[in-house]
Amino acid sequence: MNKFKSLIGGVALSVALATSALAAGVDINASSTGLAMQGYDPVAYFTVGEATKGDYRITALHDDALYRFSSEENKAAFEANPEAYLPAYGGYCAFGTAMGFKFDGDPNHWKIVDNKLYLNLSEDIQERWEGDIPGFIESASANWENIADKTPAELQKQ
Questions:
Q1: What is the model's pTM?
Q2: What is the mean pLDDT of the chain?
Q3: Residue 84 and residue 42: Cα distance in Å, rounded?
Q4: Is residue 14 predicted with pLDDT exceeding 50?
Q5: Residues 136, 42, 83, CA angle at the centre, nearest 5°?
Q6: Integer CA distances (angstroms), 34 to 40, 43, 51, 52, 62, in order
Q7: Best exposed site among 67, 69, 123, 156 by fewest CB in 10 Å?
Q8: pLDDT tens digits, 131-158
Q9: How many domains is the chain built from?
Q10: How far is it, in rounded angstroms, from Cα 103 to Cα 95?
Q11: pLDDT band at 105 (very low <50, low <70, confident <90, very high)
């Protein structure tokens, strides 16, 4: 765990604290305005296979977080079944969650595994996570039960 802390250090902490889930609740990574996934379309990962910015005019509110979509079709798909498109761990970094922390998930560093979207903090972290995806998902899922309702700052104090 110390290697992880030193790897992403203070920069990650600053980013995580600056955009923690102030508006949406601590289990969803949203900006202070409630915008989830930095405005990226969660459905597009599954339909076009790439990170796609959503349109500020095409939105849906889910669990007090605002999601943007690149098309009305994607919005409709999300509204019909949000759980199919929501990122794991509320959009926090999958690797960070495996380590017991909440860091911002960067919508440009992602992977779909077993029909679930996972975001990671950075390219380097994504590469480390890809070294043992099943193991990190198992650890993250176990940790999520204990950290979902805690703020990123609370987890840094431990």
A1: 0.83
A2: 86
A3: 9
A4: no
A5: 70
A6: 13, 18, 20, 19, 10
A7: 123
A8: 999 999 999 999 999 999 998 888 888 6
A9: 1
A10: 9
A11: very high
